[in-house]
Amino acid sequence: MTTSVPLSNGLRMPQIGLGVYLISDIAECEASVKSALETGYRLIDTAIAYRNERAVGRGIRASGVPREEIFLTTKLWPSAYPHEKARVAIGEAVERLDGGYVDLLLLHQPVGDVTGAWKAMEEAVDEGTVRSIGVSNFAVTDLDALLPKARITPVLNQVELHPYWQQPDLLPYLSSHDIVAEAWYPLGHGSKSLLGEPVVLAAASSHAKSPVQIILRWHVQRGFVAIPKSTDPAHIAANIDVFDFELTVAEMSAIDALGKDRPMFRMPRWAMSALMPLARPRPRA
Ligand SMILES: NC(=O)c1ccc[n+]([C@@H]2O[C@H](COP(=O)([O-])OP(=O)(O)OC[C@H]3O[C@@H](n4cnc5c(N)ncnc54)[C@H](OP(=O)(O)O)[C@@H]3O)[C@@H](O)[C@H]2O)c1
Question: Closest ligand 1 atom to the C-alpha of 108?
Fold first, then answer.
């Protein structure tokens, strides 16, 4: 079972979860969510743009895990940011997920009518359909623009974060504002180079764990939330089996030292506001 981190609104969030980006095969998405929950996961990360929210809801119900034990995240895409559109989009996402409420709703990208969407998200918290609200892909300048207008401070920022890209400007800002850092592409999108780093291999050997488990343990000990994606039940089980060992200070420092000065993946701002969904499922959920 995973550890959890406190959020600034008093709730706690599991540190390891399942991300379902690019799981466009609906049956596979449902099976992965069910498998993860049966293995002990309690955090699932989806988005309106992933077009698999109904499959996530079905996987949750099929698992038999009580809804109140699960922390469910989804994200609003910028085409739905204007205030009235956002209110409708939030209601539709809650209906598709079919769990009564969303634990965490994120602004997926820092473009478009961020203020209108944030107001709609605050209203959803007031109305009880959403328990926590946060952002994704927000840089320091984007947060500086949002915070003065926000009645509710974002609890979390979901960004690219792994040993090769440790967000050197953003992380100190997040901790000074009590905003949790959540890692997308926590394994560098399954980067062979990262998983083959000698310091990662050495730690894997000394703890009898896999390189993936070493990277995920590094996220846990840094205090991040990480949402590795997998559709392989063995990988899903392995990815949460990281709570029975501890990396040493020297191992943590050696992995910290892998940090580079730029992200591995960067979406241009024009693409952030594109109307096209990120994933094209077959068939549509
Ligand atoms: N907010 C955003 O803008 C944003 C952007 C991107 C991603 N995300 C979120 O981040 C999540 C994670 O991203 P991601 O899915 O591509 O990157 P990732 O989790 O870093 O890497 C996933 C890759 O690693 C492989 N893998 C996972 N566990 C493994 C294991 N134990 N052993 C060997 N290989 C393993 C997966 O293959 P298998 O399926 O074969 O295991 C897959 O190819 C997404 O699902 C989504 O929820 C958010």
Answer: 1
